[in-house]
Amino acid sequence: MKKSMAIFWGIVLILVGTLLVLVQLNVIERINIFSWEYLWPAIMILLAIMFHFQFFAGGAKSPGILVPGGILLVYGCLFMYIAIVGWNSVGYLWPIFLVGPGFGLMELKLFSRGKEGSWIPVIILFGLAIFFFIRNSFSSFSMAVAVALIIVGACIIIASVFDRKKSRDKKSDVRIDVK
Fold first, then answer.
1. pLDDT score for 102
2. C-alpha dihedral over 164, 170, 172, 178, to 10 degrees?
3. Fewer CB within 10 Å: C terminus or N terminus of the chain?
4. Residue 164 has pLDDT above 80, yes or no
5. Burial class (CB in 10 A: 0-12, 13-18, 19+), 18
6. Helix or strand or coil: residue 2?
7. pTM of this prediction?
8. To 5 degrees, how large is the angle CA 104–CA 106–CA 107?
9. Mean pLDDT of 110-119
């Protein structure tokens, strides 16, 4: 077994063992963590951690492995939360299904140092999720649209400030050697 995978599984076993000890000592409320209701989201989270660990430990050369890792992490956490509080919360939390792919694509863009991926789908997916969360939070559609316009305007201003800084940095990198 590769050293990085051995470390990963060692960490997983330590975390599971610690969780079991805390349940036995009644530090954590006793839940049946081995029921399928809690087990399948935990499997999704473990797979996500494995993808991330494989990339960050240097086992994977391509940051593309972070896309399924990010999606599984967001969905695993969502389904674990739903398993704990109940499926009634899905009516409010459904925009997180848009965040999953957006999070995976954001990780790809960030950790490839801008070489792979695009910010456009990330912004669209996060923007739609935020819009629908806002829509769920306000009683009128017009109020949700107004808040969404404020957020979009702020994002445009922030993006232009960062773009201006980037172009200024590029201009200052030009050096001329005069002999």
1. 93
2. -150
3. C
4. no
5. exposed
6. coil
7. 0.65
8. 65
9. 83
Contacts of 112 (CB under 8 A, 6+ apart): 63
Q: Which residue has the tokens 């806002």?
A: 134
Residue bearing tokens 């969360």: 133
Q: Which two tokens stand for residue 88?
A: 């009634």
Q: Which helix (H) or strand (E) holds 157?
A: helix 141-172
* Tens-place pLDDT, residues 8-62: 677 777 777 777 777 666 666 655 656 777 788 988 998 998 888 888 887 667 8
Q: How crowded is the C-beta side of 78, counted as CA atoms within 13 Å? A: 19
**Per-residue H/E/C for 41-75:** HHHHHHHHHHHHHHHHCCCCCCHHHHHHHHHHHHH
Measured CA to CA, the distance from residue 122 to residue 134 in angstroms comes to 18
Query: Helices in 87-140 by DSSP H: which ranges?
Result: 90-93, 96-111, 119-137
**What count of other Cβ atoms lies within 10 Å of the Cβ of residue 43?**
13
State the DSSP code for 87. Answer: G
Nearby residues of 55 by Cβ (< 8 Å), 6 or more positions away: 63, 65, 66, 69, 111
